[in-house]
Design a protein that fits this description.
The complex is a heterodimer.
Chain A (H helix, E strand, L loop, with lengths): L1 H6 L16 H10 L16 H9 L6 H25 L5 H11 L3 H9 L6 H10 L4 H10 L2 H7 L3 H10 L6 H36 L10 H24 L7
Chain B lengths: L1 H11 L10 H16 L11 H23 L5 H7 L12
The chains are: A mainly alpha, B mainly alpha.
Chain lengths: 252, 96
């Protein structure tokens, strides 16, 4: 093996019958580094067997082309067997220690030098920038923190998610005049939606009273549900038509 | 319901000039959706205006919270946005 490698520095890898699990990138790595590092792709079959090992041990400095092929494939098989043994003998490394090692090896000292040479102007600016960017998410966070309190939860009940949704839809990061405009618009729309929903619920209740027997205590009534659904559908359709026609009401 | 929500928004009005969502209409839609899917099974002992009133109170709580945050936490005026931001980078937030 030593004689062959000293005689033929460049291993011809053209017509070799390669073992399975051996890719082109592995050939290139073998060509340029002369140290085989193959990942265990799967079950591997050694093509040369014992004959190639014998040839490599005997030494074939003046061998013809066919024996050269066999010896080079035998060398490859030996290297791969050695890699397999090494892989079996290496203990499994803890992933945390591997991550720390990667962090240490990836540490770049020039970056630290750059940070020392050109420091940020103040530590307040990144903090201010963070608050400025995350300002829109503050109202729902504040409300959800309030909602953990028992008096607030008793007062608001199970409809608390509405508050979080509307507080996040209100877009508190807008500049002041735009915010005031959208606030006024939203309040007007909300106050217009309340009597409409009261009307729909009144119609549903009247339908329920007309179709249900006096002693029936069932909460579900199909007529009330139908009336409510009709109100909802008409409402949604009309609103989308309105939004499509009057585009000045598009905010954001 | 979801079909009715989908068709006018995406299918019929593709030529909408500003394809942005309308927050006011979305708020109206949320209120009516909650009312009409929750309110019709309430018993007769509960007054009719109970659910819309609760929803209105919740909306006003949300508006108040958002208004407080907008006025207290790093208040920004539209004049500053108009005059400062076009000539500066995002890191010039400190001058707002």
């Amino acid at each position: 093996m030593a004689k062959a490698s000293s005689t033929y520095d460049i291993i011809e890898v053209g017509p070799i019958t390669m073992p399975s699990g051996f890719t082109v990138s592995d050939l290139i790595r073998l060509r340029y580094t002369k140290t085989l590092q193959v990942l265990p792709y799967g079950p591997r079959t050694m093509s040369s067997g014992g004959k190639g090992i014998d040839l490599a041990e005997g030494g074939h400095a003046d061998a013809d082309a066919t024996t050269l092929k066999t010896s080079s494939s035998a060398v490859m098989g030996q290297q791969m067997a050695a890699v397999d043994d090494a892989l079996e003998q290496t203990p499994q490394q803890n992933w945390i220690i591997a991550w720390i090692k990667g962090q240490i090896t990836g540490f770049s000292f020039p970056l630290v030098l750059m940070a020392i040479k050109f420091p940020p102007p103040s530590l307040l600016v990144p903090l201010q920038l963070t608050v400025f960017v995350s300002r829109a998410s503050l109202p729902p966070i504040i409300f959800l923190a309030m909602y953990r309190s028992t008096p607030v939860a008793n007062e608001i009940g199970s409809l608390g998610y509405i508050v979080a949704i509307i507080a996040s839809l209100q877009f508190a990061m807008q500049p002041r005049s735009k915010y005031l405009q959208s606030l006024l618009q939203n309040i007007i729309f909300t106050c217009a939606a309340v009597p409409y929903s009261i009307l729909g619920l009144y119609c549903a209740r009247v339908a329920r009273q007309h179709t249900q027997a006096p002693g029936d205590r069932n909460r579900y009534n199909s007529s009330a549900a139908a009336v409510s659904a009709i109100f909802l559908f008409v409402n949604v359709y009309a609103l989308n038509v309105f939004r499509a026609v009057y585009s000045p009401f598009c905010v954001v | 319901m979801f079909l009715e929500l989908y068709i006018p928004r995406f299918a019929l009005f593709k030529e909408q000039r500003h394809p942005a969502l309308t927050i006011s209409v979305v708020m109206w839609s949320i209120l009516t959706n909650v009312s009409f899917t929750l309110g019709y099974i309430l018993p007769d002992a509960v007054p009719i205006y109970y659910l819309p009133k609760r929803l209105l109170i919740n909306y006003l709580i949300a508006f108040g919270l958002a208004t407080g945050v907008n006025f207290v936490v790093l208040p920004v005026t539209s004049r500053k946005i108009f005059f400062v931001l076009p000539n500066s980078s995002i890191t010039d937030i400190a001058f707002l």
